[in-house]
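Hi everyone, sorry if this is the wrong subforum. Our group has a chain we'd like a structural model of before ordering constructs, and none of us has done structure prediction before. Sequence below.
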Amino acid sequence: MDLAALNRQLDGGDPQAALVEALARLPGQSGRERVDWLLFIARCHGVIGSAVPALQFALEARVLAAGIGDARAQAEATLLAGAAHQRVDGHGAALGCFTEAESLLEGVEDDRLRHGLFRRMGVVCSILGRHDEALDLIRRSIEILPADAPEAERLASRNSWINACTRRIDAAPQDEAARRESCGAMLPELESLVRDAAAAGNRRLALLAEANCGSLLVKAGRHDEGIARLEAHFARLAEAGLRTEMGAAKGSIGKAHLAQGRHEAAIAALREALGHLEGGSVQFQRDVWDAIATAHEALDQPREALAAVKAARALEKGISDTAATMDLEKRQLRSQMSRVTAEFARLADEDALTGLANRRAGERALADALADPGNAPIALLFLDIDRFKGINDRHGHATGDRVLRECAHLMRQGSRARDLAARWGGEEFLLLLADADLARAVEVAERLRVAVARFDWGTVAPGLVVTLSIGIATSRESPAADPAALVALADRRLYKAKEAGRDRVVAG
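Answer:
Right subforum, don't worry. Here is the predicted structure as tokens:
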């Protein structure tokens, strides 16, 4: 099954099966295709609600995308990482990811990803109670979504919009009549979402939206319509195994009966709701018990009413205990996710073979060192292993890898903690010396050249000889503080060393 088919399976409401298939296919993937599979697996974990693995796969995709220079995939992975942080209420970390994704998208023409960025930022703002800002962001996400974008993304944005509107209604200081009117005004949009989700084959979203329609009818004061809608829909919720939604539906039915003065019917529906909510939301169960108490009081049944009140108060204590436990669990998850993020940040800047900084980290360090005119002078050593292709051809690539690692080790030994050694690519290395003039750079380069030449390479492979050619440039030779110009100057001097016979240092 290819990724397109698995995406349809995911949108059709079977994320676990899609995840299992994707994980089985991942080992055979490489390059850009592997990035796509990693992104899909991160998305599956997100839908299932597994925040830590969602973050791990998203960050692995981001590291690989950065390595192949794919800014679009990097931005998508960063968005998925932010969504993972959202799931454990790490809204600050989520917004940090979204800001980074926005920066990555500056040079990328991809309105679909910008749509995802605005929508996710809108959801965070909605949860944090910044309702107007949330609605503006989600509206922008809908406006820029390309016409050929997958229908699932359009439906997700509409659902986010409706949820944000509902949160704003619930939070607004208005009387009951105004609240009912606001809820009624939302119904056409929700009805439309139900129809379109069903037509697109997004069964789970269609079921949830249909149940929300019934509950919104009750909130709008159209009690009998809401009851009829929810009763007709209940079997479909049961068939899909959506127990929480079944409990919510019966709870809304019970509250509608209560509002109409049908107290015995209310009690029956509310008690059925409790059966479906067992092990679910403690707060919702407390609200149901309070409604049961109200119904028993109206029927002049004080003993039953008191028992319901006691059950509600016991759950109230449980809410406090559960909230504390959940907060601790989320803190632990956020701590674990911080460690995952830190580890992937390290891997993103590290060359896997040698353990040195990679080219991206080297470029960043060089730019930072040159950015401040008040910084001490720096020296740049550009190094190349002489005749490395011949080493690979005669002794094999495993020996070539060993040579790269040993040279990296000698570079670390011959430099200070504040210096930076990086693998630039292939057999080329860069050594950035902090607070070093030309004389100091030549001294370090000669010492390193000699160390490599005198190393006992026979222990690696019989007859193996390894030497280095090194070109040097200093920041004082680059008045414009241009990193690329400084590297180019060191590179030219490296090739002068090659032309002069190799195994030497050229500094001017």
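For your construct planning: Residues 359-506 form a domain with the Alpha-Beta Plaits fold (CATH 3.30.70.270). The mean pLDDT is 87.
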